[in-house]
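Hello,

Our lab assistant flagged a job as stuck in the queue for most of the afternoon. It eventually completed. Since we weren't sure the result was trustworthy after the delay, we are filing this so someone can double-check. Below is the sequence as submitted and the structure that was eventually returned. Let us know if re-running is recommended.
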Amino acid sequence: SIEHGTYLYEQPELIDHMVANNQFLVPTMGMFYYEPLVDAYEGAAPGTRNEFEAMKPSLVKNFKACLKAGVKIAAGTDNTYWDAPGVAWEMHTYVKHGGMKPMDAIISATRTNAENCALPDVGTIEVGKKADLILVDGDPLKDISVLQVRANIGTVIKDGHLIVEDGKINW
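-- returned structure --
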């Protein structure tokens, strides 16, 4: 897989090569759109906000070019310390800024990530696979941002075991 890949669109033959060879892109776009993170970087490195803003057009152009060509997009992030869940924010960014459909964003974080990591027993809901599920209050296919609010996650099933029920840890 290629992580970031911000300027792949400048060499379309590389995008075609990725599609032909079943390669993945992990674009890590979310951090450029998450204001608290941008502010944290700005406090540590003057000019970061301007640099992040300058990157956005290339990130979006690249994402859309790869998506249109059929590159497998795997949701991933460089940052796991956000107040909002990192992968949920990343999926939101794909939908809001990259034009990805919400279901495709969810697939990028589940099935496509499992494929990218060569994990055949996770990523989809099928007989014989590990059952990791969350039940949310809201419809992420209508509003992907519902996945970012921890209070919306009422039930978590991990490896087939009920871990969180009614928002409370169940162990």
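-- support follow-up --
The delay was a queue issue, not a problem with the job. The result is valid. Residues 48-69 form the longest helix (22 residues). The chain has six helices and seven strands.
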